[in-house]
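Holo prediction — zinc ion.
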Amino acid sequence: MDSKENEGFIHIFDTTLRDGLQSPNITPVPLKDRVLIGESLAKMGVNIIEAGFAIGSKLDFDTIHTLSQKGFDSTICSLARTLDEDIIAAGKALKPARSGRIHTFISTSPIHREKKLNMDKQQVLESTTHAIKLARNLIDDVQFSLEDFTRTEPEFSWKVIEMAIKAGATTINLPDTVGYTTPDEYAALIADIINKVPNADKAVFSTHCHNDLGLAVANSLMGVQAGARQIECSINGIGERAGNAAMEEIVMALTIRHDVLPYKTTIDTKNFMKISELVQELTGMDVQKNKAIVGKNAFAHESGIHQHGMSQDSRTYEIMSPKMVGQSASELTVGITSGRAGLKKKMGALGYQLSKGDLTTFYLAFMERAAQGRMNDKKLHALASELGLKCLT
Ligand code: KIV
Ligand code: ZN
């Protein structure tokens, strides 16, 4: 870690353009759109942008290279296996960067060592050291990941980490590659590393949590509480299988619950809605309506009880203002759980001043219609017209 003052500062490492674009069923994203996403990430204050896997494809190489030429404040990062050709390609792609990082990784868990790599522990250690030294010859900022860290024997992970730091890695990433860990377990694994690895104070530790059990954000936050100072995440949580920890959820948790999570980031949260929509549009990966922070329903209220609370004070049912995340306003929607007050307000916004009697008539007719299907503004106008109600706008 850099200094005492930085202890509460969390580096936000975005992997939308790398792990995110590895999502199954994603629409291919061409270079110009990748650059657009990279520019938006830089603009909103992301500290490290993982722009691709340089050796993986020409498109990845070109994305890293193009973003490296932009002179952003953000560090541009390329993924690389521990193979020489990967590291050399990453170094080349990052050459123009004002600040570049090579992120090299190797699997460390028994199942990955035996079934995927066909390597023993010693070979993993040697490959790690070799790759990091080679990367450090090309660039000062080298990150090392222990793929499938959470299923690795803890004692072996300590040894790998100690060697990786000794070889020159400045950031050590601890991926929950298969989304298997739990918050307490992940925190304990990280705390043990910080306490037991002799040179742990010479590196920044990082979380990288997948969401297979829906725990990616919780695990990342617990990782921070255990001492990690970098969080890897993606916009809308896109990534392999169930995805990665969602940046908007992590940053808003740190912002809204600063009382219990006293950490700072450089992210301008007002950009979340816009970048979420951009990533949805360019990748074809739509978020569900009830997605935290950026979903259509995140600031919408339909039931009578909630609409009543909201009409008195938005803090009754909202823990943050929609403006904080770039949503223009809360939304009042109407359906079969809505009450008369909510319906009156909605019809008022559409231009109808309903008397008590008109409201009763309209409410009863609305309830019948709404039970048959969703009511939109057009249908509300049509129903009002059927009932002879006059629109004043
Ligand atoms: O999930 C993972 O382990 C990864 C690594 C390459 C960091 O994405
Ligand atoms: Zn991953």
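READOUT: The chain has two domains: 3-283, 300-386.
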